[in-house]
UniProtKB/TrEMBL annotation:
This is G3ST2 sulfotransferase. PANTHER family: GALACTOSE-3-O-SULFOTRANSFERASE, GALACTOSE-3-O-SULFOTRANSFERASE 2. GO terms for molecular function: galactosylceramide sulfotransferase activity. GO terms for biological process: glycolipid biosynthetic process. It is a single-pass type II membrane protein. Keywords: Glycoprotein, Golgi apparatus, Membrane, Signal-anchor, Transferase, Transmembrane, Transmembrane helix. It comes from the Eukaryota.
Amino acid sequence: PKTNVVFLKVHKSASSTVMNILFRFGEMHNLTFAFPLNGGSQLFYPRHFMAKFVQGFSPGSAPQFNILCHHMRFLHPEVQRVVPSTAVYFSILRNPVQLMESAFAYYKGTSSFSRARSLEEFLRQPYRFYNPKLGDSHYAKNLMTFDFGFNPDGDVTPKRVHLMLKAIEASFDLLLISEYFHESMVLLKETLCWDLDSVVSFPLNIRDSSTRSSLSDSMVEKIKKWNRLDWEIYTHFNKTFWEKIDRDIGRERMRREVRALKQRQAELADICLQGRGSVSPKEIKDSSLMPLQYGSAKILGYNIKQGLDKKTEHTCRRLVTPELQYSSTLYKQQFAPKRQ
């Protein structure tokens, strides 16, 4: 199994669920994480990543961290200072249309969205609300482009798009697609030589459907146009995603692998979860498993069954622990004061 991994956690793209997978694998195999200084939850995002943002990084020494997966704005040369050269780099993308709808609910308090009564109103005259000079404007336009380290307000010329896609391809070994989450996890498992249980997960940081808004065809087109660079990234890597599956796995085997993954997920839901699925925030009984509630989104969580044996309870709890709590637990483990 490969143990050196860089995951670019793109906002609102099922990346919290992927992060949980990396946390569990790292904890189980006693790997070191590149944590933000003082155990923060982001690597000084939205600034471009710098090696000095990592707790315990020392400039003179060889890269000594196994897993880098907290929110950052990607900058390859700096990342290379933190992880070994053998690291596998991957990220996950999402259709920019759904991503924008999600971001509008989640980042409602930001400068671009707070005054718009609806996403529709924002899209009618985006420049009434959007000011690229403000520090939180990146949440409102080409968010994936921004997270990959590029200028979200750049002109969309064929040359610029080509260079951006080539740069992403040069830095990343694998780009997954959140709409095909199970297929993505199978591809990840194959790339990292991990076993099935290492990539099984329950969806984390997901919204209650009552806070989702439906989009008309004209809004869909406006979103694509407004997030044109993101659309170029998404369509390109959606295509290479399926090409990789056809080349390395084949559709028939992929179907079998997905079936096995879903079956294992259902088994674990049966073992671990009360009611077998997610619940609204007010129904979460254990406050330590409460996900961060943010913007106007209602973020769902889970309840674990009572009376499980210790080992099973630990496994189940890790599967449903929200990222902030899990990150803080791992940070404390990694930087626990050494006993004299």
